[in-house]
Amino acid sequence: MDDCALRPSQCALLERLLAIPLLDLKREYHEIRSDVDAAIAEVVAAQAFVLGPKVEALEGRIAAFCGTRRAVGVASGTDALLLALMALGIGPGDEVVTTPFTFFATAGGVARLGARSVFVDIDPDTYAIDPSAVAGAITDRTRAVIAVDLYGQCADFAALRAVTESRGIPLIEDAAQAFGAERAGRRAGALGDLGCLSFYPTKNLGAYGDAGMILADDDALADRLVRLREHGESRAVRRYVHPIVGANSRLDAIQAAVLLVKLGHVEAWNRRRADLAARYDSAFAETPVVTPRIAPDATHVYHQYVIRVADRDRLRERLNRDEVGSAIFYPIPLHQQPCFADLGYAEGDMPEAERAAREVLSLPVFPHLTEAEQDCVIAAVRSEVGAAEVRG
Predict the structure, then answer these.
(1) Count of domains in the chain?
(2) SS3 state of residue 360
(3) CA distance from start to end of the chain
């Protein structure tokens, strides 16, 4: 190892250890294996694999956890966003205001329905959509706003609601990365008119495949979502009658069973993520590294621990050499994606999102990361940013 800025013992430890992953789900499975295996076996024995009692139980538990009246299980987080837009009647010619600094699915559903994404810039501290920019982007064609709870912290929904409610515009919360986080005393998923959750395996609460859920307080919207996930049919009324055209987006019972087990652990796992994040914060306090900034009325569940550095790519190359896992979420803002070229955005239109895309880097923060491993991550980062500082 070269240029190590911490104790020699830490450098030696880094040399001895195997690669440190960004995420290791096998360790999580080891902790809960017996309960998960039993839950899956129960579904197999019952031979009820799609929707059914397990899904209904999960919907009730998630709604209670997040603080909404209803929860509707669907096949994925992507489908949760798509069906939310469908439930609101979004279609060709409509505009949806959203952020360019997010996973593709946030805007992908808008495009699939023939509507147009109107991108606005982000708050550079939280990476969430800038409410003042939203206000300036609304037109008479705006039919919804989608705000994203990025990396584990909720967007500023109080400010966003001040913009949308006075205009009668629905507000969708993409809470895929923030399960368990809070803003102003309310949990992620309950802050908009509809809240969309993803249970993709890498999420803080992750299934063993694709799975998602939509949260709502409005019974009419929730009932419409129940129909939309099954081709527009309402089993409670009459089978094989389709008042509307929906999709095939039903939640599997095996995924629900796994999620019911994990739900009992997620708060402890989120606390562990926060503890690891605090250790990173302390270790990087006297370095050029910019650590996560949390809004005064928010909690953070650290789906990702994201730092910012001026020469991000050089730091990542160093971490790769040291076999330390890292990732970039996201390297290309959506307004610069080739498939959205027809929207007419140019480089420089979203300066904060573009700058974040050049500077952000995610470090390992999964609950089963050991402190010894984290010390190695810290040593690698500090040695590189220190060396960069001297060379500059």
Answers:
(1) 2
(2) strand
(3) 21
Nearest Cα residue to 80 out of 61, 95, 101, 62: 62
User: Are 199 and 77 within 8 A, CB to CB?
Assistant: yes
Q: Quick one: pLDDT band at residue 37, thresholds 50, 70, 90?
A: very high
**CATH label of the domain that carries residue 181:** 3.40.640.10
Cα dihedral 355, 357, 361, 365, rounded to 10, equals 110
Confidence of residue 383 (pLDDT cuts 50, 70, 90): very high
- Give the Cβ contact number of residue 268 at 10 Å: 10
With beta carbons less than 8 A apart as the criterion, state whether 84 and 172 touch: yes
State residue 18's pLDDT score.
61
Q: Are residues 123 and 252 in the same domain?
A: yes
Q: What is the mean pLDDT of residues 240-257?
A: 90
Residue (of 114, 77, 122, 80) closest to 98 by Cα position: 122
Q: Give the pLDDT confidence of 93-136 residue by residue, as tens digits.
A: 999 999 999 999 999 999 999 999 999 999 999 999 999 999 99
159 and 296 in one domain?
no
- Could you tell me the residue range of the domain that residue 246 belongs to? 30-263
Angle between helices 266-283 and 371-391 (to 10 degrees): 30
The CATH number given to whatever domain includes residue 337 is 3.90.1150.10
Nearest-angstrom CA–CA distance, 171 and 154: 14
0.90 exceeded by pTM: yes
Q: Is residue 3 part of a domain?
A: no
Q: Are residues 270 and 259 in the same domain?
A: no
Q: Spell out the residues 6+ positions from residue 148 whose beta carbon is closer than 8 angstroms to its own.
A: 98, 99, 101, 102, 106, 128, 129, 155, 174, 176, 177
What would the DSSP string read from start to end of 290-309? BPP---TTB-B--SSEEEE-
How does pLDDT run across 324-382, given as a tens digit for each residue? 999 999 999 999 999 999 999 999 999 999 999 999 999 999 999 999 999 999 999 99
Instruction: Look at residues 263, 279, 312 and tell me which one is the last residue of a structural domain.
Output: 263
Name the CA radius of gyration of the chain, rounded. 22
Name residues whose C-beta falls within 8 Å of residue 233's C-beta, 6 or more positions apart in sequence.
Answer: 227, 239, 240, 241, 242, 246
Q: Tens digits of per-residue pLDDT, 140-161?
A: 999 999 999 999 999 999 999 9
Residue 368 in domain: yes
Report residue 28: phi and psi, to 5°: -60, -45
Q: Could you count the other beta carbons within 10 Å of the beta carbon of residue 74?
A: 30
